[in-house]
Specification:
- The protein is α+β, with helices and mostly antiparallel strands.
- The protein folds into 2 domains: 30 residues, no CATH class; 93 residues, no CATH class.
- It is 34% helix and 9% strand.
- The chain has a 4-stranded antiparallel β-sheet with strand order 1-2-3-4.
- A hairpin with a 5-residue loop joins strand 2 and strand 3.
- Helix 3 packs across helix 4.
- The chain is extended and about 65 Å long.
- The N terminus is likely disordered.
Length: 160
Amino acid sequence: MDTHVSGEMVEAGGDGAVAVGAGHRTMAGIFSIPDEMWERIAPLVPEHVNTHRFGGGRPRVPDRQVMDGIFFVLRTGAQWRALDGTGICDGSTAHRRFQQWRAAGFFDALWEQALKDYEQEVGVDWSWLSIDGSMGKARWEAGRQGQTRPIEASSVSSAA
C-alpha cells in the first residue's frame, strides 16, 4: 500500500512498519519482533481465558503487538506510559500483560527456551562461566532502633 504524505512516499511493510521517505521507520517498525523470533515465542505465551461474565469485553490487543511494547520498554528503559506515544500499544495494556505473563512464568520459560536454542545453534562455552557472591554479618548498629545520632549545628555560614 503506497500513499503520499506531504510530498513523501509512504510504504507499509509486511511487518507493520511504515517507511516514510528514504529509510525512515516508525517506532512500531523499529522495535517489531522478527517473524522467525515470534514463531519461537508464540507457543510459550500463556493462553488467554476470557473471564468477562458475558463473554464479551473489549477486543484483546494481539500478543505479538504487546510483546513488541514490552521489548521496547526493556530495551530502552522507558516508562510504560511512554509506549502511548510510540504507536506500538498502550502502556497500561503492556504493563498489565507483562505482570500477568510474569506471574504465569512466561519469561522464565522464554529465557530457558532462548538458552536451549542458543546452545543448539552456537553452543554455550560453560568452561569460562563462574558464580560469585559474598556474605557478611550485619553490623551491630543495625539492631539498634530509633537511636540515630543528631547532626550537630554549625556556626559556619553555608553561603559561599
